[in-house]
Amino acid sequence: MQAEAQARLMDGIKGNRFVVFGRAGMDMFADPIGTKSEHAEVFRADLGGSSANICAGLVKLGSQSALVTSVSDDAVGRFCVNRLQHYGVDTQYVRAVGGEPRTSLAVYESCIDDFQNVIYRNNAADFQVTEADVDAVDYSQYTALITAGTVFAGEPSRGATFRAMENARAAGIPVIFDIDYRPYSWPSPEVAADVLSRAGDLSDMIVGNDEEFGFMAGGMDKGFAKARDLAGQGERLIIYKMGSEGAVTFAEGHEIRTGIYPVTAVKPNGAGDSFMAGILSSIAAGYDLRTSVLRGSACASIVVSKPGCSPSMPTTDQLDAFLADHPGPTTA
User: Fold this and answer.
1) CA 250 to chain centroid
2) For position 175, which CATH number holds?
3) Across the strands, what pairs with 177?
4) Contacts of 328 (CB under 8 A, 6+ apart)
5) What domain range is 148 assigned to?
6) Structural domain tally of the chain?
7) Of 238, 188, 239, 234, residue with least CA distance to 215
8) What integer best gives the mean pLDDT of the chain?
9) What is the pTM of this model?
């Protein structure tokens, strides 16, 4: 049973066609590097939002991705759709919604000291994804489903995404879950812990940092045990991120420890999205699990060293050049 579950997951990832659930947003970041937002005279704009970033990162690394989300029926929503298409992401399941919901906006800076990221997500448009939206997806065209935890913070997207997970299972494709806990999106920590734990129980692969697993476990000191418990008897692949200390991958009863590639960071955001894209695309390209996690770590380092999120996601050539020239990884 363990081997079958892992083989099904790996086969799905190697199929290299991903349907991704979650938000797309507009990022505005102060220019030039080092400028604080409150002193900026110029901001650059590009695609943001965790799931949209994952989609862009996957395509840049040679995978296929389609995003399932809602955006506001206005210039900002159309901007996001245009940027998704610019990066080669399939937007056939992106629906524009009227009324008051608005596409998310993030305003931040390329300045690691006292980094500021101002998020506008009141009445977010991506929470308007419905069961009808997810039922319209042709799951037979994809080999794995990816979802970020933010979609579970509100309705109707919470129920719709749980339904999408059921649809994926019915279609025989694995579910990959990025915990992506954002406290400001949730009505309470208790609701978040319950819902995210339920999503984890339905997933074949879970990626999260030490704080996110700790949160799900009810205490920061319990996160590692939670990750190990979720791995169960080898039926799930769990990646436990520890920031500068690297990561621990739980797979088939083994614990694989990997380090990072140190860089001079200009921002902290976007790293997890690029990490996910790097791992999945590397597995799909035929790399073993440990090497794939390391390539994901390199992708994360590249993204934090440059302005913006989607625009700083590396291509395969850029990733390979970084790995050839950069010292590392560190010892986990």
Assistant:
1) 19
2) 3.40.1190.20
3) 147, 206
4) 259, 260, 261, 262, 298
5) 2-324
6) 1
7) 188
8) 94
9) 0.96
